[in-house]
Amino acid sequence: SIRDDEVIAAADERGIAMVFSGERHFRH
Q1: Whole-model pTM?
Q2: What string of DSSP letters covers 1-28?
Q3: Which GO molecular function entries does the Swiss-Prot or TrEMBL record give (predicted)?
Q4: CA angle, corner 13, sides to 8 and 17, nearest 5?
Q5: pLDDT tens digits, the chain, 28 residues: what are they?
Q6: Which structural domain range is residue 1 located in?
């Protein structure tokens, strides 16, 4: 459904942001 797509998009954005920030912290 449209709502599911929105939820998945929001979760992906948060997940990607956490992954990138986590990688940066670990690398630095």
Answers
A1: 0.39
A2: -HHHHHHHHHHHHHHHHHHHHHHHHHH-
A3: hydrolase activity; transferase activity
A4: 145
A5: 788 888 878 877 777 777 777 766 666 5
A6: 1-27
